């Protein structure tokens, strides 16, 4: 395990030393703990802070002239005095650090950091390929602070005391924030109206063969806004928009904002149970729909009143500006995300945060007047909102790309080229499919100047492939959460980054990002901690959900009166001031770009008749697998069908396994690690591929689904094994288009699909 954070911008092989005098001898009197105990406690505190772990290991020189011996140190809750007594022999004999209280060991070993006492001075010997001189100075400072705190009160709770200097605190809380930017006293829809006045007859949005000018879009939005007001819409009244991604949807979104309402996106194909839960939780009174998009909504038991845009067009509403005053702190929208309690949670974001994010996108992605932005994301993704409105706000246009086009990668790439798209955002897995298409059928893409990836961690290998294929097109890694008004960090890349991981970049304007410990105190630079947010980006909380709001939203302890959001994500600062993502430590996962709380899936699982207990795990980051117990097994297809009645398709496990009981850890909790390994093993099948076509098909499935080929059976169903519409697109590309997307959806069983593959040869 890496104990010492790597902190140098110019790593070079070698060693160096840093020395600093001790304020006074350790220990000061014969009645206090021995020198080695005091120094060991300070060292344990420093290593725990640097590694982000309570349990650490160091190599301790036990006596003068002896070789270092590995010691386990526990820096859990307690006093400094308890910390002095925590050391015990054992642990990794190759630990990165050596502590020598006697100052006689020469440090000639492979330690990253060697700490010792020499004639009243603290000496650090460090590897220069890991640390630079300023990092060593900081770490020495941490040791001195810890020693001073022990001297001041050895019975104090060490977990409540910080090792960071005032200078480092100022640097993290002030200098690592996004640049300050004065926001205009305008709302997003008002900036759009300014553009309408400037060029009313320019094209604002395109959908297939249809296109609307700024004047037409504004007119339609105004009429929808007036129709909502006529039906009693109040300030911050929640309006669900249950529509496909079309021009009318765009007008409805603007209409809700213009009327002072709160936009709540709902995808028409979502299960009726989920739609009812979302509308009920949000306190929604009005729904905007269109002919053919309300079938599932009609099945949901809701109190909201439905307004069809088709009806609005026949009503005689004035299409002039509404003139409704909307404050910066007023709610703009609510997006529902997966919730661990079994119910989705609706993140509420205000107009100021919405505007701040949109302007950052326009600036960092280089969106200018006359340029085209592709709108590709589903309505339930918050990124769909900036994709929808950034173009017109900047004086450009929005290209609404239909789902059928997105699922046909060659057609999608052709569309991007033909429509002259300048800015595009996709999830990394889809960019991978686009690259595969471009490698087989190169296109010029002359207008495209920026591609953004978001929704899941982007691998460096994909970035390398991108710049090898398109060196002149910037790639932006965007990171953020729904609760923080979408993206908070942009890593704008013009070349492959040097780091092993692709960084998240620096915070955007007016956003403050901290990396903190459990007590919300900043951790040392380079150390892992929880990523939390402050500033205009932080939303108001979860709608009608005070308990979950209180758990995630609090007051910024460093800026009283301002909100702070705890993301649950873990990361660390890099020497260049950028943020690096390290993962999560809770039950929330990202699967194919979708944010999923495993607890929500498990709660739905427990509602299936016959299921007594259940757990859900993620296999290879690509698919969910469920395990159930009960009096007697329930058919896996029945379980999945019941889950599909209340969960979106992306949250339904691809496989369901029945067990007599679930494995438990020593403390009685479900052993998810064992279940994960079990899920891998249960993928193995006896009826493996037989013909050359089946073997080729299994190899392609393995590549796309992340399942070992020897665990794929000839009678397996592609979609039951975790396949999605995007995975089907990637499968077609992997097979050099020997089969079509229609073949995959119509013949999902491997043996059947392999017959088509053989006939195409």
From TrEMBL:
Name the record gives this protein: Non-ribosomal peptide synthetase
Domain of life of the native organism: Bacteria
A Pfam cross-reference name: AMP-binding
SUPFAM superfamilies (UniProt xref): Acetyl-CoA synthetase-like, ACP-like
GO cellular component, one term: cytoplasm
Native organism taxonomy: Bacteria, Bacillati, Actinomycetota, Actinomycetes, Kitasatosporales
Stored Gene3D superfamilies: 3.30.300.30, 3.40.50.980, ACP-like (1.10.1200.10), Luciferase, Domain 3 (2.30.38.10)
Native source organism of the sequence: Streptomyces adustus
InterPro entries: AA_adenyl_dom (IPR010071), ACP-like_sf (IPR036736), AMP-bd_C (IPR025110), AMP-bd_C_sf (IPR045851), AMP-binding_CS (IPR020845), AMP-dep_synth/lig_dom (IPR000873), PP-bd_ACP (IPR009081)
One GO molecular-function entry: phosphopantetheine binding
Gene Ontology biological-process entries: amino acid activation for nonribosomal peptide biosynthetic process; secondary metabolite biosynthetic process
Start and end residues of each Carrier domain: 688-761
């Amino acid at each position: 395990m890496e104990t010492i954070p790597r902190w140098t911008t110019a790593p070079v092989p070698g060693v160096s030393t840093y020395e600093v005098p001790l304020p006074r001898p350790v220990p000061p009197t014969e009645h206090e703990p021995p020198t080695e105990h005091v120094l060991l406690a300070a060292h344990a505190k420093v290593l725990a802070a640097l590694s982000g772990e309570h349990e650490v290991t160091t190599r301790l020189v036990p006596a003068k002239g002896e070789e270092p011996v590995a010691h386990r140190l526990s820096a859990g809750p307690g006093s400094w005095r308890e910390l002095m007594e925590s050391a015990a022999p054992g642990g990794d004999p190759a630990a990165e650090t050596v502590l020598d209280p006697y100052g006689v060991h020469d440090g000639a070993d492979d330690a990253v950091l060697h700490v010792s006492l020499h004639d009243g001075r603290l000496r650090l010997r460090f590897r220069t390929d890991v640390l630079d001189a300023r990092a060593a100075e900081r770490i020495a400072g941490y040791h001195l602070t810890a020693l001073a705190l022990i001297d001041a009160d050895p019975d104090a709770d060490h977990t409540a005391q910080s090792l960071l200097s005032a200078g480092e605190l100022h640097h993290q809380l002030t200098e690592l924030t996004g640049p300050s930017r004065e926001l205009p006293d305008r709302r997003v829809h008002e900036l759009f109206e300014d553009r309408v006045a400037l060029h009313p007859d320019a094209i604002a949005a395109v959908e297939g063969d249809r296109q609307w000018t700024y004047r037409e879009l504004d007119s339609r939005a105004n009429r929808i806004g007036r129709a909502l007001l006529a039906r009693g819409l109040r300030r911050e009244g929640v309006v669900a928009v249950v529509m496909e991604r079309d021009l009318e949807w765009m007008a409805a979104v603007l209409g809700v904002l213009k009327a002072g309402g709160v936009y709540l996106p709902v995808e028409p194909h979502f299960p009726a149970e989920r739609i009812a839960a979302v509308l009920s939780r949000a306190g929604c009174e009005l729904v905007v729909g269109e002919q053919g998009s309300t079938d599932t909504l009609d099945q949901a038991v809701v109190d909201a009143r439905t307004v069809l845009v088709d009806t609005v067009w026949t009503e005689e509403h004035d299409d002039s500006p509404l003139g409704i005053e909307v404050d910066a702190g007023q709610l703009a929208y609510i997006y529902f995300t997966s919730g661990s309690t079994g119910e989705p949670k609706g993140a509420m974001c205000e107009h100021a945060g919405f505007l701040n994010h949109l302007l950052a996108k326009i600036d960092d992605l280089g969106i200018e007047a006359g340029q085209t932005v592709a709108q590709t994301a589903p309505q339930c993704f918050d990124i769909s909102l900036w994709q929808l409105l950034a173009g017109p706000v900047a004086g450009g246009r929005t290209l609404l790309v239909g789902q059928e086009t997105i699922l046909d990668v060659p057609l999608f790439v052709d569309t991007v080229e033909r429509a002259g798209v300048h800015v595009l955002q996709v999830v990394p897995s889809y960019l991978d499919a686009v690259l595969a298409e471009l490698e087989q059928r190169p296109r010029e893409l002359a207008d495209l100047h920026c591609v953004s990836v978001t929704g899941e961690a982007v691998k460096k290998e994909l970035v390398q492939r991108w710049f090898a294929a398109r060196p002149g097109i910037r790639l932006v890694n965007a990171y953020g959460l729904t609760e923080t008004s979408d993206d908070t960090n942009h890593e704008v890349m013009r070349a492959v980054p040097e780091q092993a991981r692709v960084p998240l970049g620096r915070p955007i304007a007016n956003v403050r990002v901290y990396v903190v410990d459990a007590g919300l105190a900043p951790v040392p630079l380079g150390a892992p901690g929880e990523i939390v947010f402050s500033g205009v980006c932080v939303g108001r909380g979860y709608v009608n959900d005070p308990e979950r709001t209180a758990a995630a939203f609090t007051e910024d302890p460093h800026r009283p009166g301002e909100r702070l959001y705890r993301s649950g994500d873990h990361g660390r600062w890099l020497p260049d001031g950028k943020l690096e993502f390290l993962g999560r430590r809770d039950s929330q996962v990202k699967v194919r770009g979708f944010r999923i709380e495993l607890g929500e899936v498990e709660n739905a699982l427990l509602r299936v008749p016959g299921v007594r207990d259940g757990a859900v795990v993620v296999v290879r980051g690509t698919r969910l697998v469920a395990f159930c117990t009960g009096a007697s097994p329930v058919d896996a297809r029945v379980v999945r069908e019941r889950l599909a009645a209340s969960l979106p398709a992306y949250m339904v496990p691809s496989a369901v396994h029945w067990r007599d009981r679930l494995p438990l850890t020593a403390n009685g909790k479900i052993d998810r690690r064992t279940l994960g390994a079990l899920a891998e093993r249960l993928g193995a099948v006896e009826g493996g591929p037989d013909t050359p076509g089946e073997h080729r098909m299994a190899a392609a499935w393995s590549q796309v689904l992340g399942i070992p080929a020897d665990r794929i059976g000839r009678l397996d169903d592609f979609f039951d094994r975790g396949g999605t519409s995007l995975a089907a697109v990637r499968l077609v590309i992997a097979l050099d288009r020997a089969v079509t997307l229609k073949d995959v959806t119509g013949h999902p069983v491997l043996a059947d699909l392999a017959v088509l593959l053989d006939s195409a040869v």
